[in-house]
Amino acid sequence: MVLPMPKQLAIHSEVLLLCERREIAQFVQAYMQHLQKQKVALPQSQFLIFRSMEQLSVLARRLPLIPGSERVRRIIVLADAGNNLEERRELLDMVRGSAYFSKIPYCAHFFFPGRLQGKRWRSGYLEDLLLEALRPETAESGEFINLYNVCQEYVDSVNNCRGQGNGLGNRSRHVLCAYLAATEKYAGASLDEAVAAGAFALEGERFACLRKCLEKLGE
């Protein structure tokens, strides 16, 4: 399981994967295991969770003080694009221009849910990508559609009850959680467990951009 940074932390890898959320770390770790099963060569990596883009600058100042930080050669920042992509891009550019990051030979980033055709990042979240890649739990596609629609209606009902301005952020996250909880196969599973159990079609074109980003770590 991927955990937030403890107070006493040491860096033991040349590759750091900095993840905005626990769910992002869980998914990327499980996806990398999926790629390794397909004989994709990936280096050993260390995951750190920085909780929000605003906290990334705090981590950038802290990293040089952590034992082992001098061994880092590659960093990828993995975060949600959200609905304020330009603001997030500006925060990331400031971090990448900091004293520590500017000395790292390879530094890249990936915004979920990924890129549109071409180079433009899509707005949204990791869960938007995962909902697009959901595999039906049963062979009956109608059952899958019905359950999926019920989960969407439930989340929308919750938002209506909460009222304007108090709705659930990242709607797709809650739809995905509701769907997994409502199935027999994935109920109670963490995101990485759901990935390992085959909840998502990871071989599709939707994941090509992420795969390419991670494959560069092994070059």
Short description:
This protein has 219 residues and is of the alpha/beta class.
* Average pLDDT taken over every residue: 89
Q: SS-based structural class?
A: alpha/beta
Poorly predicted runs: none
Rg is 18 Å
Main beta-sheet annotation: 4 strands, parallel
Strand order of the largest sheet: 2-1-3-4
Gross geometry = globular
What is the percentage of strand-forming residues?
5-15%
The residue fraction in helices comes out at 40-55%
What is the H/E order? EHEHEHEHHHHH
Count, helices: 8
List how many beta strands DSSP finds: 4
Walkthrough of the structure:
The chain is globular, with a radius of gyration of 18 Å. It has about 220 residues and is an alpha/beta fold. A four-stranded parallel beta sheet has the order 2-1-3-4. The chain contains eight helices and four strands. The model has no long low-confidence stretch (mean pLDDT about 90). The longest helix has 22 residues, at about 140-160. It has helices at about 20-35, 55-60, 85-95, 125-130, 140-160, 170-180, 190-195, 210-215; strands at about 15-20, 45-50, 75-80, 105-110.
Which characteristics define this entry?
single chain, 219 residues, alpha/beta, four-stranded parallel β-sheet, 8 helices, globular
What topology emerges from the helices and strands here?
Layout: E1 15-19, H1 22-37, E2 46-49, H2 53-62, E3 74-80, H3 85-96, E4 106-112, H4 126-132, H5 141-162, H6 171-182, H7 191-196, H8 208-215
Parallel strand pairs: 1-2, 1-3, 3-4
Helix pairs in contact: 2-3, 4-6, 5-6
